[in-house]
Amino acid sequence: MSTITVLGAGMHGLTTAMLLARDGHRVTVLERDPATPPPAGRAWDHWERSGVGQFRQPHFMLPRWREELEDALPEVLDDLVAAGGMRLNPILAAPQERRGPARPGDERFTTVTARRPVLEAVLAGVAARTPGVSIRRGVAADGFLAGTPTSPGVPHVAGIRTSDGERIAADLVVDCRGRRARMQDWLCAIGARPPVEEREDAGFVYYARHFRSADGGMPPAMGPLLQHYAPFSTITLPADHGTWSVGIITSSADHPMRALRDPAVWQAALARCPLIAHWTVGPGIEPITGVDVMAGLEDRHRRLVIGGEPVVTGLVTVGDSWACTNPSLGRGASIGAMHARLLQQVLREVDLGDADKVVRRFDDATAAVVEPVFRATLAFDRHRIAELAGERTGRPYESDDPAWALAKAVAAAAATDPDGLRLYGRLALLLDPPQSVFADQSVVGRLLSRPAPRYPFPGPTRADVLDAIAA
Ligand SMILES: Cc1cc2nc3c(=O)[nH]c(=O)nc-3n(C[C@H](O)[C@H](O)[C@H](O)COP(=O)(O)OP(=O)(O)OC[C@H]3O[C@@H](n4cnc5c(N)ncnc54)[C@H](O)[C@@H]3O)c2cc1C
Asked: Which residues form the FAD dependent oxidoreductase domain (predicted)?
């Protein structure tokens, strides 16, 4: 039986631990935050979680996440539903005139979702009762233990040193320390080359509030969960117990928009969005937070294999510690679940004793399966931030990147055509890879030959929002 140490008991640390323990590994999860997770029903009000900056930010689990969990950890979904998680089909929730009648296959678009503390409390509850998983909270990893190299010149991680000086030996360390994880110093201290790291400020800022309805109901969706307008994008994300979140996402370079941190200004701006305003005000609707602001989000990608050669063995990174982006497409949890399952698969095929092969095989699998999703998300974000800059400077953004034109065409088709809506759903909800979605040229050709408006839904110009702010 091998011993695996997972760093971080966030969404992906817990998922990874459960998957690996089920395959017979003995897994210890080290979590820096000391608080014991409360039952899911008390998590929103009673769980302090400074280690996860986005803990009270809007979250929505895509159908891809539901599919991954249904396959690999179905009891998480059962517990989530029992804890009040919302079962929702974003395609069938669209207005009838946009989605048409329900079709065979539409059930794939179903998901189960909740507010982030509720989601994580459910994962923590299932992990805590999974044989082979031990979770130690209030224990911070502080560096790697160097072991005997298995390949000449490549340092080997043989465990973890904690901030209390404890030494914990492991056959494999899985770094799930999230988007703020720094690794260079720890690698340098055991004589490893630095990993390949790409990092940039994504340039987005989130202004988000959570709401609750008096009767447990949910406002009707009049457009998709994520909508793009000239001055900002909006998200309207249903969650557990008749709660939901509404977010405004814009460029952090747009200084007048910083007034959106004031709830009255935020409300006034959304009053100019005819498909969104009813999520924020109406009979029985009550805000349960002020406007929570999150900025300084990095796009980051880290690779521990350079030019085909590992910089280290005995260590892999999963989830946000491997790569993270601006989260407006809501893909983090799905990518992390896919990634954790890839590691499970690699460890089924490669003996942990072959430390070099484990790192190489996981790197290859990551590059083939999850990196394309990361790259596509990053490319979308870069176009969108440039589009927001174009609105600010009065020079409308144009790009000759066919992928951006395609993204615009798909979004426009989704707004007007039931086939387009499903095509968009398969792509945006990560259910199928683009090559399979675009394989049926008869439908795709018809949908994508139409002219695509820059913004498919009625909404404010930037000047409208600046007026609302001034008023
Ligand atoms: C504003 C925002 C909104 C988002 N919305 C969505 C969404 O709608 N849908 C979606 O799928 N994803 C969303 N995401 C992404 C999602 O939150 C992440 O993908 C997910 O939280 C990553 O999980 P993780 O386990 O990799 O890291 P985290 O959840 O960040 O957990 C990392 C853990 O590591 C611990 N840790 C750190 N350092 C140490 C150490 N030295 N020793 C021990 N423990 C340590 C931390 O305390 C923390 O518990 C959003 C992200 C942001 C920023």
From this structure: 4-173
What is the phi/psi pair of residue 89, to 5°?
-115, 105
Distance CA 344, CA 354 (A): 15
Q: Which long-range contacts (CB under 8 A, 24 or more apart) does 72-79 make?
A: 72/19, 72/337, 72/341, 72/344, 73/15, 73/18, 73/19, 73/126, 75/126, 76/18, 76/122, 76/123, 76/126, 77/112, 79/40, 79/122, 79/125, 79/126
* Domain-embedded: residue 48: no
pLDDT tens for each residue of 13-44: 999 999 999 999 999 999 999 999 999 999 99
The number of distinct structural domains making up the chain is 1
CA of 103 to the centre of ligand 1 (A): 35
Task: Give dist(CA 325, CA 313) in Å, integer.
Answer: 26
3-state helix vs strand vs coil in the chain, percent to 5: 40, 20, 35
Q: Separation of 72 CA from ligand 1 center, angstroms?
A: 20
Ligand 1, closest atom to CA 235? 8
**The pair of three-digit structure tokens given for residue 25, joined into one six-digit string:** 């590994």
Q: How many residues does the chain have?
A: 471
Region 219-247: mean pLDDT is 96
| Biggest distance spanned by C-alpha atoms of the chain | 69
Measured in angstroms, how far is the CA atom of residue 276 from the centroid of ligand 1?
Answer: 27
Tell whether the torsion through CA atoms of 107, 109, 114 and 117 is positive or negative. positive
Domain with 262, as residue range(s), is 200-296+463-470
- Report if residue 175 sits inside a domain: no
Quick one: average pLDDT of 228-243? Answer: 97
Name the pairing type of β-strands 305-306 and 309-310. antiparallel
pLDDT computed for residue 446 by the predictor? 81
CATH number at residue 280: 3.30.9.100
Residue 319 · residue 377 · CB < 8 Å: no
pLDDT tens-digit series, residues 341-377: 999 999 999 999 999 999 999 999 999 999 999 999 9
Which two tokens mark 191? Answer: 């004589």
Give nearest CA residue, ligand 1 atom 21.
11
* Ligand 1 neighbours by CB, cut-off 6 Å: 7-13, 30-33, 51-52, 54, 57-60, 140-141, 176-179, 206, 294, 297, 319-321, 327, 330-334, 336
